[in-house]
Amino acid sequence: MADAQYILPNDIGVSSLDCREAFRLLSPTERLYAHHLSRAAWYGGLAVLLQTSPEAPYIYALFSRLFRAQDPDQLRQHALAEGLTEEEYQAFLVYAAGIYSNMGNYKSFGDTKFVPNLPKEKLERVILGSKAAQQNPAEVRSLWQTCGELMFSLEPRLRHLGLGKEGITTYFSGNCTMEDAKLAQDFLDSQNLSAYNTRLFKDVDQDGKPRYEVRLASVLGTESALHSEMTSRLKSYEFRGNHFQVTRGDYAPILQKVVEHLERAKAYAANSRQEQMLAQYIESFTQGSIEAHKRGSRFWIQDKGPIVESYIGFIESYRDPFGSRGEFEGFVAMVNKAMSAKFECLVASAEQLLKELPWPPAFEKDKFLSPDFTSLDVLTFSGSGIPAGINIPNYDDLRQTEGFKNVSLGNVLAVAYATQREKLTFLEEDDKDLYIRWKGPSFDVQVGLHELLGHGSGKLFVQDEKGAFNFDQETVINPETGEQIQSWYRSGETWDSKFSTIASSYEECRAESVGLYLCLNPQVLEIFGFEGADAEDVIYVNWLNMVRAGLLALEFYTPEVSSWRQAHMQARFVILRVLLEAGEGLVTVTPTTGTDGRPDARVRLDRNKIRSVGKPALERFLRRLQVLKSTGDVAGGRALYEGYAAVTDAPPECFLTLRDTVLLRKESRKLIVQPNTRLEGSEVQLLEYEASAAGLIQSFSERFPEDGPELEETLTQLATADARFWKCPSEAPSGQA
């Protein structure tokens, strides 16, 4: 059997998202709007399979055919007859549920591959003897032959997502290196093109010279005669002696489905802003234009307090090894009015709270653009995983001048982060009950501060294309050096493009640190209804949770290549290091032996030193983070951040040894079962599923009732067309592009 870190355990937690009451309160028109947006999101989410690994689309297609022909209960009888044990069949169901939940065979949180926890030959017997195989023997056998070996393979390069020799990714062809990624980013910057909706493919010509294809995601292909802002960009370029070709049409049939449902949703929009927003999204996905998506995002920001909230596109860049390309995601949710009222109070206090942050006023945005901040109950969240909160859009220029929105996903928080006492690791016994009682409330506070005042704070110093600066070069002083500002962002440069591989984690660390720092403010805790001893417990558990998370983060560090696989967890480890460095016994991490005789550890936080020792340490760190970000000082930012993110076995903590303990006692992240919506006549019905691996599988089996087989064929055709770029087992001829 495979190493435990590469399997999903049979007893993995599975929870269902509950949005029944919020959906019930929608009007018929609002339900239709939510339904079509959900359909658009689910269709678009299929692109993630093509953004993850060469084999993911084939695995998805194989399992979808399998469970369409036989539901999990029916397939169980066949599997047991083929000689599988109950445990082995459950392992298969968990693996299949994991594929659907992560939209591929790599964990969305940590980017580690997971493989079936049963013998390959037994799974082969189940698949080739299934009803699906009886109905379409050649098709099912072909899918298995294409993905079976890769499904189980744990050769070193395939264990994690990464670039070049460090892992696998389908954002880049398999022969691309980090140097190719940097060159491509410089090319994109020179043409003022965003990387968000692109992939990079490298070929080598007969003379051995590389030729790069930058492919944009769009419905239309390069040959389209329809003129738009994008058509003039679709051509060949010479850049630093290298040939680049900008094309489009990536994921075209999938995005066509997205566009069709966005068009239908427009008919049920609540106002003109929503109509204009959807029109621009349609333009973006049709033409491959990020500028159109930005225009749509402007209308989205202006659409304050909608009953049905949504966002869709190529959004988060966590899984691009270079940190610039966005994974497709789409969400649809309904407002939770009670918690939203607290967040609105936080927004009202934001300008005053921003003044509490430990950097000079010149390093803060010229004007705080008061955002929407709502607590939402998620109906649909497509992509590779569901976060607890979101601060979007991610476009720096919009965030600086137009603003942003914050959302906290209330029904996700309610199920994904619930903790059982017996599964609580690395805490003192007398901390556990307090932790369980206050983790939820403290997390609400942390998410609110993290999203609104973490991601929502700070100014980037920019020189525009005309040479004008957005700060006074004469008077603004760097508080770390006492000198005038020496570096800034040039036209076309963004936070992601400039800080690339550390951008996501660095920013998450800054936002988490802001949350810890401002949760000490009594005004903040009063907004959430906490005073006196309760407020002190919320502070303590919030800080304790961050310290424990820093230790748990070691699961996501790969010592073989000295790299982190998850931005949020790297950020939490960095904060742990900062607090340990503060000294005076504020935080200690001590190896112990568990009651089972195996290695264990305990984290301790001295609650009496949070303000006297922890706050000053965090203050110094936060100021440095912001100053380096504002000034675009990549060298200084890397030195600071990578220094704290280094994992060694140096005493007293011996983190590499502790990593083995963390892996020994890790608990897998929960799988989340989401509902479906179905149009019956003119009414939209909500379809819910049980909280189990089988329930999750059923939800996907019923997700595309009209065109499931067609979609699976589309996915495999798209994967096969590009298979040569990863030397993936495929029927594609060697010259096919």
UniProtKB/TrEMBL annotation:
Keyword Membrane attributed: no
Comment on bound cofactor: Binds 1 zinc ion per subunit.
Reaction(s) the record says it catalyses: Release of an N-terminal dipeptide from a peptide comprising four or more residues, with broad specificity. Also acts on dipeptidyl 2-naphthylamides
Stored InterPro entries: Dipeptidyl-peptase3, Peptidase_M49
Keyword terms, alphabetized: Aminopeptidase, Cytoplasm, Hydrolase, Metal-binding, Metalloprotease, Protease, Zinc
Claim: Metal-binding is one of the keywords in the record: yes
Pfam families linked to this entry: Peptidase_M49
Documented EC number(s): 3.4.14.4
Requisite cofactors: Zn(2+)
Subcellular localization, as worded in the UniProt entry: Cytoplasm
Active site: 451
Protein residues bound to Zn(2+): 450, 455, 508
Enzyme class at the top of the EC tree: hydrolase
PANTHER family: DIPEPTIDYL PEPTIDASE 3, DIPEPTIDYL PEPTIDASE III-RELATED
Family designation: Belongs to the peptidase M49 family.
Protein name: Dipeptidyl peptidase 3
Organism classification: Eukaryota, Metazoa, Chordata, Craniata, Vertebrata
